[in-house]
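Work through what follows:
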Amino acid sequence: MSDAPPAGEEATATQTIPAMVLAATREREGTAVRYREGREWAELSYEDLGRRVREIARGLIALGVEPGDRVAIFSDTRVEWTLCDLGALCAGAVVAPIYHTNSSAEARHVLEDSGARVVFCGGRAQQGNVEEVREELSALEHVVLFEGGEPAVSDDEEEDGPEEAGDEDAGDDETDDDPAAPIALERLIQLGEEIDEGQVDERVDGLSGDDLFSLIYTSSTTGVAKGCMLTHANYQANREMIASVTDIDQDSVTQIGLPLAHTLTRMMQMVTLGAGAELAFWSGDRERLIEDLSEHRPTHYPAAPRVFEKIYNHARAELPPEEGAKGAVFAKLLDAGRRAQDAEHAGKRRGPLLALGHGLADNEILSDVRELFGDRLRMAITGAAPAPRHVLDFFYACGVLVLEGYGLTESSTAVSLNDPEDFRLGTVGRPLEGTEIALAEEDSEVLVRGPQVFRGYWNDEEATGEVLDEEGWLHTGDVGSFDEDGFLSITGRKKDILVTSSGENVPAPAIEARIAASRWVSNAVVYGNDKNYVVALVTIDEDERDALGEETGTRQQNRDLMARQMAEDDNVRLEIQEAVDEANRDLAQVLQVKKFAILDHDLAQQEDEITPTMKVKRDVVYERYRDVFEGLYENDEEH
């Protein structure tokens, strides 16, 4: 195997996560969390955060949760997620996140496999999914709701009893007879009032780095999701590595919007709180994405590549087209921005002409783009999928650093990350401090070793043995390469390499990412095993469907009818053909997509076609749309 350049001394973790957080709540001042409450933004100070977290921990102890018990959180990204995550950890529990979009069957698997005794549900959809399968979950004892459930009891009701409080039927309420009935979060907190606060400190002090921190279930593209066992030492080591690169301090604001079930978001939550900085939650409204950024004015922003594409499309829609005289002027202004950034990051002074050109560009274009992020963003972080290079380059020229990193759930979060002081766009950065990354000699598979690498899969020693070897190397299944300066690039998954009839290897994910870089495309799935050329299935981005309809004359009120028409419309095909042509540019002939079909609907997690992290389940899509793929090869002899 070939090793990366040295990554520095091994990182160490000296605290558990709950000990770190409680220390921050005692020592830090100012705002810890900012979140939407109705139409207004609300805040929790670090003191408030510590109080709420302790209240939830006491409530869980009152329910009978013991150290090492599993507590699940089945919710979208909201402040209660964070409070209950930290509260469960302070009770000594092991947290098992569930994506809020998961089906009842997917939720059942996590709850059953983990043996969770308590599950927090964010809304009616999640509660309904749990109730649908609850009889199959022998270990599950309590469901706690962020919305609804058995309410907290007022002081008068506790003192006088239900009948004196004016509710003659209260004694017949099913919640009184059924201890397993869902309860409200506030009721949980009320139950905890009987628990001495010192028990929380005892639970936290009793934890060690070797204890389990979380069971995070992989959003597997094949087979059943497996629970990754991550210890406090794993997560703390990785938190310290990432903190050293992101440089989050007490004056920083990190905005989050990705699911907290996703390890990147949850990790950035811990990095932020560990630094005594402010954690800002998005409003939950996709239409308010830009508005949320403008109001929070974050310094750090972790998000999926698709989010940055959305912001890029929003920005480009307000700027001159690439063609014509205006396009030429725009290109020069953008180039001035790029050269100014190059000079700044190289530590060079801008010459008078460049300074003049950059000043003009900044006044005309660049500053407006920075304003979309709230005008003080120091670092945006993305991963989980390749970010389109033109998006990274555009934001870079405008003074917005969108930097890629790489990691897996099995590695806590990250093993490599571009540093704002030392980065290379189009790569996933250098190995983090204390992390070894090597490439297998036979197939360039990325191998990882370091303190953030997980203990193994819960209840699955066989699967653990398949990815963790005797020397401690994690076999990621990804294929990569290093450049001459030690920057890592990920070129695809081993299992996603197609082999044509002529024996040529086709890196499907890389080609798919090039097609999906188009504004109009949400997903592209390449097909061509044992075929003499490559084809693709393409889906239209639902958020851009109206704009594409305006562009092609296919817009109409009935969106389902419009989607079906778009799949067959010649003008729409021309737009998608442009995206495919752009993707094919500079690719070897054997890698180029020769034909494509447009699906009249997007791929959906509910249909088991994509994972919660938006990765395509290739085998499912191949089987479900086999006739579509095979139809692209019919009556054809020209390729």
In short: DSSP finds 23 helices and 27 strands in the chain. The first strand starts at residue 2 and ends at 3. Confidence is low (pLDDT under 50) at residues 4-14, 161-176. The first helix runs from residue 17 to 27.
